[in-house]
Write a structure and sequence with these properties.
Elements: H1 3-43, E1 49-52, H2 56-63, E2 67-69, H3 80-85, E3 103-105, E4 108-109, E5 139-141, H4 152-156, E6 165-167, E7 185-189
Antiparallel strand pairs: 1-7, 2-7, 3-4, 5-6
């Protein structure tokens, strides 16, 4: 055998070793995934919500009919969800953030600084987006085209005062207010 043949055999053996390592690692992680799902399946009560990176087409294979997408659809009449909550409506969590309620027991609320200002909300209720009331103020100065502040031309264009000062508003930002985020699927346990 030539030296290059020995190198090729050694490379093939190294590649086979690396591949078998990754196959073993994948098998172990699948076992870990299955063990984690079994833990959630046995210990999380009906109504629990979990995030997942798996789309429903894959998630339903391991969810065994106990978990469904939190997509606003209706739970079946024979589900534990319907029996316990007296509603079939599953919350629609697509594109929204989850927010904790102000109280876990009636009369035991959080302080106003920590909680939702809308104190009468119920689990699963939707809340529109809003921007807290605030203001911005600034003044902007212009000179008339003839170089003088407060000239006839600046007054005709709506610039006010001898100094040519007027309030302005500038549009800034994107399509929505949002914090940094990572997209996930939300599932809710119904059985």
């Amino acid at each position: 055998m030539e030296r290059k043949d020995l190198i090729n055999l050694g490379s093939a053996a190294a590649i086979a070793t690396i591949l078998s390592f990754f196959v073993a690692l994948y098998s172990a992680s699948t076992t870990v995934q299955e063990q984690a799902f079994r833990f959630f399946d046995q210990n999380l009560p009906v109504g629990s919500i979990i995030p997942s990176m798996l789309p429903y087409s894959e998630y339903k294979e391991v969810a065994s009919g106990k978990w469904v997408p939190a997509d606003g659809s209706d739970a079946p009449d024979d589900s534990e969800y319907f029996r316990l909550l007296k509603t079939r409506k599953i919350p629609d969590l697509r594109g929204v953030f989850i927010r904790g309620l102000n109280e876990f027991e009636k009369g035991k609320t959080t302080t106003k600084e920590l909680g939702d200002p809308e104190t009468n909300r119920e689990a699963g209720s939707y809340q529109e987006d809003t921007l807290e009331k605030h203001n911005h103020s600034t003044l902007h100065s212009h000179s008339g085209l003839d170089g003088t502040k407060g000239s006839k031309l600046s007054i005709e264009r709506g610039w006010f005062g001898d100094e040519g000062l007027h309030p302005i508003a500038v549009d800034v930002g994107g399509l929505e207010n949002r914090p940094k985020n990572v997209a996930v699927y939300y599932y809710i346990r119904i059985n």
